[in-house]
């Protein structure tokens, strides 16, 4: 039997607790997962099964949300992060990583955190969730993928100003991004010969150098080199023609050069079901593609679609990695 997915609670004053409850209500024993967190943070009336062994999750999930208890100090007010909670949020993430790396969970799904709350309350030293996970895993470079039933897409550069992208886009960075993506498509998505479409940086993929030379000097030579190594790579492609239905049918994942070039297509095609996946870790990590939504926390109106898809993706990828050669 496949081990369950571990779900870290994230920022408890955000929408994480209510989405965990709604995800359990939708999935129950069809996809058992274990919430790591304080059961007192769940919406009133949520059926809870406290467990101390993740192997009990499938049976417990039939009638209640399985919870691996992690008590938090201080009070909870939806929409208002409590600095006293910060260290517990960090500890829950580390606990989730330990469960996955020990094989007790098949994958880690992380509810959103509030980075400023962690910095203010616990001196959180990492730029974000992903960097903390990479540090726990001892990994130098990871890749962010956004995935939905409509599209899998990877930005090569992520949270930097657009003006810095041409300098940040190096041969080494793009090579690592393509290799990590290629390996993940084989190992975690079960695609033995993945097809990857690679966008250019400039309009019309530079139009032969008339609109920029990054395609000529960086992207095209690297793609040619990696094709010679056996990778199925298309490009550099003009980004404005990569995402219509017929184009998407020709590849398994797209690699883009910067944040908005990658995220605008997937959020336009499938806004509510996008899943954030961290590739390159020694374990599976997924997350819903949204933040803590403090402005609507506790109101019961947050949509659970992305959380449900993140849990489904975590299980699917966890099973694929476990059975990979």
UniProtKB/TrEMBL annotation:
Pathway: Cofactor biosynthesis; pyridoxine 5'-phosphate biosynthesis; pyridoxine 5'-phosphate from D-erythrose 4-phosphate: step 4/5
Domain of life: Bacteria
GO molecular function per UniProt: 4-hydroxythreonine-4-phosphate dehydrogenase activity; cobalt ion binding; magnesium ion binding; NAD binding; zinc ion binding
Cell location: Cytoplasm
Binding residues for substrate: 129-130, 267, 276, 285
Cofactor note: Binds 1 divalent metal cation per subunit. Can use ions such as Zn(2+), Mg(2+) or Co(2+).
Record's catalysed reaction(s): 4-(phosphooxy)-L-threonine + NAD(+) = 3-amino-2-oxopropyl phosphate + CO2 + NADH
Residue positions binding a divalent metal cation: 159, 204, 259
Stored Pfam families: PdxA
Enzyme type, top EC level: oxidoreductase
A single GO cellular-component term on record: cytoplasm
InterPro entries: PdxA (IPR037510), PdxA_fam (IPR005255)
PANTHER family: 4-HYDROXYTHREONINE-4-PHOSPHATE DEHYDROGENASE (PTHR30004), D-THREONATE 4-PHOSPHATE DEHYDROGENASE (PTHR30004:SF6)
Purpose: Catalyzes the NAD(P)-dependent oxidation of 4-(phosphooxy)-L-threonine (HTP) into 2-amino-3-oxo-4-(phosphooxy)butyric acid which spontaneously decarboxylates to form 3-amino-2-oxopropyl phosphate (AHAP).
Additional remarks: The active site is located at the dimer interface.
Protein name per Swiss-Prot or TrEMBL: 4-hydroxythreonine-4-phosphate dehydrogenase
Native source species: Roseovarius pacificus
């Amino acid at each position: 039997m496949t081990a369950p997915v571990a779900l870290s609670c994230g920022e408890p004053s955000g929408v994480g607790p209510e989405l965990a409850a709604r995800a359990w209500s939708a999935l129950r024993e069809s996809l058992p997962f274990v919430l790591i967190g304080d059961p007192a943070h769940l919406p009133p009336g949520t059926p809870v099964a406290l467990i101390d062994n993740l192997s009990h999750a499938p049976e417990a999930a039939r009638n209640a949300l399985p919870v691996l208890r992690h008590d938090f100090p201080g009070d909870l007010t939806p929409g208002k992060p409590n600095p006293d909670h910060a260290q517990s949020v960090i500890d829950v993430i580390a606990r989730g990583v330990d469960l996955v790396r020990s094989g007790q969970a098949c994958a880690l799904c992380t509810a959103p955190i509030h980075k400023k709350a962690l910095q203010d309350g616990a001196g959180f030293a990492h730029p974000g969730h992903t960097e903390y996970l990479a540090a726990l895993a001892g990994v130098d470079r990871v890749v962010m993928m956004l995935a939905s039933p409509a599209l899998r897409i990877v930005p090569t550069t992520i949270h930097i100003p657009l003006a810095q992208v041409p300098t940040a886009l190096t041969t080494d960075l793009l090579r690592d991004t393509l290799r990590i993506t290629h390996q993940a498509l084989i190992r975690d998505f079960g695609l033995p010969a993945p097809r990857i479409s690679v966008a250019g940086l400039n309009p019309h993929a530079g139009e032969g150098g008339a609109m920029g030379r990054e395609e000529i000097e960086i992207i095209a030579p690297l793609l040619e080199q990696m094709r010679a190594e056996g990778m199925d790579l298309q490009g550099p492609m003009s980004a404005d023609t990569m995402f219509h239905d017929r184009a998407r049918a020709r590849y398994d994942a797209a690699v883009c050069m910067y944040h908005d070039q990658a995220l605008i297509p997937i959020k336009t095609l499938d806004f509510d079901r996008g899943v954030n996946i961290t590739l390159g870790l020694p374990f599976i990590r997924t997350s819903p593609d949204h933040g803590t939504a403090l402005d609507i926390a506790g109101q019961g109106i947050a949509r659970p679609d992305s959380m449900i898809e993140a849990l489904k993706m975590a299980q699917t990828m966890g099973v694929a990695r476990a059975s990979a050669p």
